[in-house]
Amino acid sequence: MASRSFVALASIGVFALVGCAKKANPDATGLDCPEGAEICPVMIAIKKPGPMTYANGALSIEVLVSPVNHGPSQIQLVRNGDPWQTVTGPSFTYQWDTTRDPERLDPDTVPSAAVMLKDATGAAITTTSSLSADSTTLTVTLSNRAALAIPATITETIAATIKDRAGNALAPVDPWSWMAPLWVKLPSLLGTSPSLALNSAGEPAISFMTPDTANPTSGVGPVSVARYKAGSTWDRDLGTPTSAIAASTIGVDVMGAPVVAWAEQNHVRVSRLAGTTWQSIGDDAAAGLTSAPMGVSSMALDAAGNPTVGIWDYVSQMGPPSGYVARWSGSAWQLLTAANMPFGTSSGGPLVEIDSAGQPAVWANHTLQRFVGGNWLTINNAIPNALDYATLDLDAQDRPVLAFQTNSGGTTYLDVRVFTANAWQAFGPSVSNTPGGFNEVHLAVAADGNPTVVYQPLSVGSPDLHVARYSGQTWTTDLGTVNAVSGGTPARVQLALDPVGAPVVAWEEYDPATTTRSVYVWKSNL
């Protein structure tokens, strides 16, 4: 839940810094000098705002100085007894952004129940609250997010005991309510080909193609990166790792730094954001492969933030590319090749996941392989009637989990299975079935081992994305469907789960009203 800052206007006074008033003509904006007086009395007072003013935003402080023509030229504002700001004539005005300089709260006046939340029935919602180290922000967080039925109306009540350190009490705040939606919709971004990753707090980062400004409808342009910023918006000031026009893949390391991989002509590059600078990770990740146009199929990071990249090598002008896997050792790129390399890609892949030991598991062309002891170990247990383009994830026990389609009697089934005890075990019945099959099938597994699947049925009237979660016994669709443009068709879909298992979905979609394609990211409120 987003935090709210409560700012009480501090006690403010004024005194003259420079100036000496002599006799002057009557001043319409201030006091008149007495007739015949050689020395005119000086009047200084705060004109605006009025006493006991409360603000959370921009606030204009105006000082009345008289006489204007021969009074002080500078005025010192004093805040809570301490020199604060200097203002100069003739306007003697200071614009105070209270959000950047909030008044500090007295911690002794901020009890744990300073902010109370209730649901639509009036029942209290269990929360935890914490005051920031600088005593300017009180953050309230739901203790058990899963216990709140979303969407929900939430009412907030603020205790009247809160004071700032100067003893000013918080102005009375009426209870206010808002609707917590099923999905939090981040601002759309003009572009295509999104890749999605989350940091340890479940906040998204994306890489995508920003369209050429000269041709915004093309959907083709250089790599751009955006990261979640408080207030459910984007930080777009991250720069870009490259000016190349290319699709990309993103990951986020344990320190929260984005790592981006992309193909640049006959090379594969990877870069990490260090502070405000993008730093290359080695040189060419595809070094040693036959020189040809390259592509990046996937990327995964180990616990140390070292990337492993799935590579497409389009060495043949006819047919699918060859698939390879390259791993950064911390000092150099290593091609993890074996006798059965390259991977086949005609049925998808290579899709890379990293296990808890830092070793890759790869799904490519109906085959699952794990890198064990410096060699690839093939898991040969076939899945009957499995169709192309499965998706892969590993659970907390490093067990491979696959989402895939099978066909039987003219009906296509979407199934999810986990490889355990040397066999593929199904998660309950099929997620869904339809005569026309499915597009955009994507899988992610929560910390409790339960998978979530996003998919697009092809035989229904609407092209919306469906979201299904496994409850431990059956598949639930309580998150409904996802689509940003009425009648539009989401494409290039991405799925990730936050630490409590709530899904985050990213995709691109064409909007006929603007004739542009945009990237959308929705985060579940569960």
Walk me through the structure.
With 526 residues, this protein is mainly beta. Among the domains are: 12-97, no CATH class; 107-180; 266-380, Thrombin, subunit H (Beta Barrel), CATH 2.40.10. It is 0% helix and 47% strand. Strands 13, 14, 41, 42 and 43 form a 5-stranded antiparallel β-sheet that branches. Strands 31, 32, 33, 34 and 35 form a 5-stranded antiparallel β-sheet that branches. Strands 36, 37, 38, 39 and 40 form a 5-stranded antiparallel β-sheet that branches. A hairpin with a 2-residue loop joins strand 29 (367-372) and strand 30 (375-379). The radius of gyration is 30 Å and the shape is elongated.
Please provide a brief summary of the model.
Helix content is 0%, strand content 47%.
Keywords:
mainly beta; Thrombin, subunit H; 0% helix; elongated
Assigned CATH class of the domain at 266-380 = Mainly Beta
| Record field, number of beta strands | 43
CATH topology of the domain at 266-380: Thrombin, subunit H
- Unreliable residue stretches: 1-10, 18-31
Radius of gyration: 30 Å
Give the distance, in angstroms, between the N- and C-terminal Cα atoms: 11 Å
Structure class: mainly beta
The helix tally amounts to 0
Question: Regarding quaternary structure, how should these chains be classified?
Answer: single chain
Helix content estimate? under 10%
Sheet of most strands? 5 strands, antiparallel
The fraction of residues assigned to DSSP E strands is: over 45%
Envelope shape: elongated
CATH architecture of the domain at 266-380: Beta Barrel
Mean pLDDT: 86
